[in-house]
Amino acid sequence: MKKFLIASFFTMFLFQLHAQDGVPSKSVYLEVGGPGMPYSFNYDFRFDSENMNSWGMRIGAGGYTISEGESFFSLPIMANKLYGNGPHYFEFGMGMTFFAFNEDQNQYCLTGYYDQNSGQYICTTYEQYPFNFILDVDGSPSVMGMLNFGYRKVPVDGGFTWKVNINPLFNNNGFWPLFAGLVLVMHFKFLNSIS
Q1: Exposed site from 106, 148, 168, 173, fewest CB < 10 Å?
Q2: Residue of 174, 5, 128, 173 whose CA lies nearest to 73
Q3: How buried is 121 (Cβ within 10 angstroms: 0-12 exposed, 13-18 middle, 19+ buried)?
Q4: 91-120 pLDDT, tens per residue?
Q5: Do 43 and 58 meet the contact criterion of CB atoms below 8 Å apart?
Q6: pLDDT single digits (tens) 158-179
Q7: Taking a C-beta distance cutoff of 8 angstroms, is the pair 54, 46 a contact?
Q8: Do residues 175 and 144 touch, judged by C-beta distance below 8 A?
């Protein structure tokens, strides 16, 4: 898993895709927060590579394993539209994040006994508590609806793209308006000819 994350991080910087001279219409980036909950590697593109104000799409993957038996995986998929004149854009998007997690970590021992022979506490009854990522989740796998409102700065001739988003999220258990995401992407001028 660590090797995959390191390789993905370097890929983010080495394989920036550009559809035209100057303004990149495709990006690969790491987002902290946002629809990937809590982070994700993403691919974003415009449906019309000649028009940055066109509709586009992003798809990503994120996840982690903290300790034995505790893991989380997310797959954000969103449509988005940019409004503005380069290099400054307002970004609007909507979509969903599919995610899965190990439910074994979401239980605690209700009753049990101490075994004299083994010296261990043996649990006989478990209680499940709901997984919570800002909102309660009914189980794994699950889905969370996402909206995206943000600012994106796209360089004209190389440099850094960065964006800041507010990502309201919702599911059948509620709505949370103040989740956010942050992205910083390096675009390399020498890759402008790649389409």
Answers
A1: 173
A2: 5
A3: exposed
A4: 999 999 999 887 665 566 777 888 888 888
A5: yes
A6: 667 788 889 999 998 889 888 8
A7: yes
A8: no
